[in-house]
């Protein structure tokens, strides 16, 4: 792969942290992915080397989706508290290079989630919170627009908090279609879309308009399936009109991680204004565990698309200005 455009000062809003305790290589293998060996064991220095190569000044750290592991309870709460302390320590040791989105315990633990929001944002200085698309397993799983999670959203809305929403590694078919098409490749992006759609059709997205939600991976299939939801959900009883559904989908923010290509970015530009798009790499990645070369290819695609017509302003907007405005940094 060729090197990226020489652009510095990027802010990467989609950058993961692998605490040694999570056993990343084993996690990846279970869902049909091979973790690049150079990423493990992960340390901040692994990320800093990649950031320097990609022209990233600041990366916003978040835990892989689905962590800390369940079920809800004291152990789950303690794990979230420990992970957030670890992330805050990394930020303190590398000022200007890292920020973080606080992880939360299982959202079914309402009081635990509310306590961690307050601890993460007020005491640790997190720049927002990270959420999975759903919580629970199999028949017990609930998507994040579920009524049970309303107190959490009310708190986030009251704070005008930034929420980083990432799809979970939920299989829709067993086995997945092919060894080259594991769950991270085919399922995770669609879980992001389903969570976003759930918030929209339940009316929760417009109920909590001040919670500023970033959808990972350009929202997965969101730009392509939002019109399908707009046309069909009202027939099934959704109280919103098609135009309202599409308008609510357009209030999300979208990061470019593992999705930047001329075809997808053109579709995104037709769907939302450039002010809604943020740069992300997914390095070293939660569900995929990307190499620097993979992140570099997507970064180059984004550079070429936004600066291809000489529009430096658009490139700067996506690469760092939108994140500065959203995160207040």
Helix content: 40-55%
Rg result? 18 Å
Bulk shape: globular
Sheet/helix structural class: alpha/beta
- Total DSSP E strands: 10
What proportion strand?
A: 5-15%
Helix count from the secondary structure assignment: 13
Strand neighbour order, sheet with most strands = 1-2-3-4-7-8-9-10
Report the order of strands and helices.
EHHEHEHEEEHEHHHEHHEHEHH
* Low-confidence residue ranges: 28-33
Largest pleated sheet: 8 strands, parallel
Description:
There is one protein chain. The chain is built from 13 helices and ten strands. Strands 1-2-3-4-7-8-9-10 form an eight-stranded parallel sheet. A two-stranded antiparallel ribbon has the order 5-6. Helix 4 packs parallel to helix 5, helix 7 packs parallel to helix 9 and helix 9 packs antiparallel against helix 10. The protein is α/β, with parallel strands linked by helices. About 2% of the residues have low confidence.
Summarize the structure.
This protein has helices at residues 24-30, 44-54, 74-93, 110-123, 150-158, 183-186, 188-201, 204-207, 222-232, 242-249, 262-271, 292-307, 312-327, and strands at 10-16, 56-62, 98-102, 128-132, 134-135, 142-143, 162-166, 212-215, 253-255, 277-278. The chain is of the alpha/beta class. Strands 1-2-3-4-7-8-9-10 form an eight-stranded parallel beta sheet.
Features:
about 15% strand, two-stranded antiparallel sheet, about 325 residues, 13 helices, 8-stranded parallel beta sheet, alpha/beta
């Amino acid at each position: 792969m060729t090197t990226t455009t020489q652009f510095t000062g990027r802010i990467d809003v989609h950058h993961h942290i692998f605490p040694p305790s999570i056993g990343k290589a084993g996690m990846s293998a279970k869902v049909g992915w091979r973790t690049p060996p150079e990423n493990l064991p992960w340390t901040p220095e692994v990320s800093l080397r990649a950031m320097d190569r990609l022209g990233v000044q600041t990366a916003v750290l978040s835990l892989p989706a689905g962590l800390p592991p369940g079920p809800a309870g004291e152990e789950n709460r303690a794990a979230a508290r420990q992970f957030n302390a670890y992330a805050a320590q990394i930020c303190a040791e590398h000022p200007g290079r890292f920020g973080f989105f606080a992880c939360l315990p299982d959202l079914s633990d309402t009081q635990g989630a509310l306590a961690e929001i307050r601890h993460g944002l007020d005491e640790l200085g997190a720049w927002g919170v990270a959420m999975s698309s759903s919580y629970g397993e199999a028949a017990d799983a609930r998507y994040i627009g579920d009524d049970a999670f309303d107190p959490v959203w009310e708190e986030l809305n009251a704070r005008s908090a930034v929420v980083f929403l990432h799809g979970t590694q939920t299989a829709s078919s067993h086995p997945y279609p092919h060894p080259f098409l594991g769950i991270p490749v085919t399922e995770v992006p669609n879980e992001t879309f389903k969570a976003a759609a759930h918030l929209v059709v339940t009316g929760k997205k417009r109920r909590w308009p001040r919670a500023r939600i970033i959808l990972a991976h350009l929202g997965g299939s969101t730009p392509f399936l939002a019109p399908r939801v707009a046309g069909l959900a009202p027939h099934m009883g959704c109280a919103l009109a098609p135009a309202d559904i599409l308008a609510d989908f357009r209030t999300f923010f979208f990061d470019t991680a593992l999705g930047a290509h001329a075809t997808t970015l053109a579709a995104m530009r037709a769907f939302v204004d450039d002010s809604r798009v943020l740069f992300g790499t997914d390095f070293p990645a939660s569900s995929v565990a990307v190499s620097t070369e993979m992140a570099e290819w997507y970064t180059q695609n984004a550079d070429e698309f936004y600066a291809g017509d000489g529009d430096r302003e658009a490139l700067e907007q996506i690469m760092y200005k939108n994140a500065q405005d959203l995160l207040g940094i």
